Amino acid sequence: MPEQYPVEVQPDFLEKITRAKPVQALSELVWNAFDADASIVDVSFEYNELNALDAIVVKDDGDGIPRADAPGFFRSLGGSWKKPGAQTASGRFLHGQEGRGRFKALALGRTAEWAVVYERDEKLWSYSIKMTAIDIRHVRISDEDEVTGKATLGVTLTIGEPLKDYRTFTLDAGRQELTEVFALYLADYEDKARIVLDGQAINPGNAIVSRKTFNLMDIVIDGKEHGARLHVVEWKTAANRALYLCNQQRFPLVQVDRRFHIGPFQFSGYLYSPYFDCAQKDGTIELAEMQTPVVAAIDEAQQTIKDYFRTRAAEDARTVVEEWKDEQVYPFAGDPMTSVEKVERQVFDIVAVNVARHLPDFSTTQSKNKAFQLRMLRQAIERSPEELQVILDEVLRLPKRQQEELAQLLRDTSLSSIIGAAKIVSDRLKFLTGLEAVLFDPEPKKRLKERSQLHRIIAQNCWLFGEEFSLSVDDQSLTQVLIEHKKMLDPKIVIDEPVKHVSQTRGIVDLMLSKATRQHRANQLSHLVVELKAPKVDIGSDEVTQIQGYAFSVMSDPRFAKVGVTWNFWVISDKLAPYTEHLVQDESGLILAKPNVNIYAKTWGQVLDENRARMKFFQDRLDVQVDKTSSLKYLQERYSAYLEGVFEAEDDELENEGEPSDAASV
């Protein structure tokens, strides 16, 4: 009589089964066939009169399932007859170890029926196994019958009432995804295993460009070391750039959720380790990514893949670049002199070659126009991804999809980041060297105006006072300082009248910089108020009195005292007068320290030295070299609107704005 067996279902396994992706579910069914020593697995699709999918059929020529073993195959989802390292009769490694692949059929359709033919006592026997999604806890196994007619060993699985039309399996994308899963297995067992999908055999050999293996750092879990390796397969056709966690036989167990932006290459990465065999056996492979050592291995694999294909891209670009050099359209002259220049060339070569590939007329363009386009591209890459977007869109007319690919390449690549960081360091060092010349060289120093020139330049470079500060107030009254203060802190503060300066009706603050600080209490903020003096004005008693006036105004205003704020006041110029030198308490230039107010008198020499010290590490590592000539040129070009007359002798008699001019009537 037919028998009915309860299936011991764990809730977490059921949830995984019902959420399986189509290709993943079909892959599990194909693996089951190969584990039964099938040499051919044929996946076909049956349609009804309306051309709608009626059934998915997975047929294999394996050994079948003996009737006596069938209950054990379906009784428990958490166990399996397959043991780690076990092999089929023909010597192939087994894939499954969790005993759940057969239940993946119900992730594709509501019914599943296995028609089994196996050999016993030199005779062929047949029977069927049936399951339904509405009663997954029970499997129905029929009686067996001796096969009297012509029949072949194997299993034919028919999945009825498909949950979707599943046209994906018959499209190139679905075929490619299935190829990625089985590529290494089919390549390793080229003469023993074959998959036919919708009437056409999957041939990974025709789809593979190259294969390469890398050794990675060991995965250390609970003090035990597990070796890790990465196998990278490059495809000829479009793929989804996937990274899989695999067992030691490189059978994909789970796909990692990582994204790759590495140019035109199509690939799959297979990260395999004996640890994943253990995780598969324990039923925890789906949770592997929650372990820090596994995440580290995935990160290393991801970076290895990026480095490999960037090197490939550079190699591919080299030939094209040599042609550009011969044609004399390449926008760089000579060989790179520093490590930063080498990286800069590499990024340019990769991006430029990609652009050239997507512009069908580029190779036939006249040399003059080609050189112009490459020069613009170089300039855009060096300046910013945003400027590159304009070049790609408005000038080169590159299609939107290619623009996004190239822009993403620039945003994500560490090479681009290195160039960007090097440029920031280089520009800042040039700024410091140029500013030093403006502040201390006799002629420029004499011509520089405080308010319209020095003030304007410094306001655009607040990093001079610390990376943590952002510009909050620029040349505003103390009342405006309070307004800005209110925006960031306490909306309950009532601004009913201007803040009174202790010695005059109104005071003008050059710059106020703000920094939020993390404290255990709310409303913690640090303000830096900077009073700039023209370099020809020494910081004497008048200048000290002025900055103290600002500080004392803050201290005496109850609206400032109600919130947790630290105020730092700086007055800066080229030199301290003897009066001020006697007031400073230490090398920082501290004049006065109160619980929430500090006053400093600083020289530009101090500020420049502090900034150079901050950047020295990066300057040394990035091999950035700056000189006075290039620095002055940079300053003049970047801030030409503010430096007019500073470097010209005829401007000697220009208006002197360096005297204390901050007192103004309301």
Mind explaining what this structure looks like?
The strands form 3 sheets. Strands 1, 2, 3, 4, 5, 6, 7, 8, 9 and 10 form a 10-stranded mixed beta sheet that branches. A 6-stranded mixed beta sheet has the order 16-17-18-19-21-20. It has a 5-stranded mixed beta sheet with strand order 11-12-15-13-14, sandwiched between helices. Helix content is 39%, strand content 23%. By secondary structure, it is of the alpha+beta class. A hairpin with an 8-residue loop joins strand 17 and strand 18. The model is unreliable at 78-85, 517-522 and 649-666 (pLDDT under 50).
Topology overview:
Blueprint (H helix, E strand, L loop, with lengths): L2 E4 L4 H8 L3 H14 L4 E8 L5 E8 L9 H6 L33 E12 L2 E10 L5 E4 L3 E2 L7 E9 L9 H17 L5 E4 L2 E2 L2 H4 E14 L2 E12 L6 E5 L5 E5 L9 E7 L1 H9 L9 H36 L11 H20 L8 H17 L1 H11 L4 H13 L1 H27 L1 H6 L2 H10 L10 E8 H11 L19 E9 L8 E8 L8 H16 L1 H4 L3 E9 L4 H4 L8 E4 L3 E7 H19 L5 H11 L28
* Beta content: 15-25%
Structural class: alpha+beta
Total count of helical runs of at least 4 residues: 20
Roughly how many Å is the radius of gyration?
37 Å
What is the mean predicted local confidence, pLDDT? 76
Distance between the termini: 105 Å
Major sheet characteristics: 10 strands, mixed
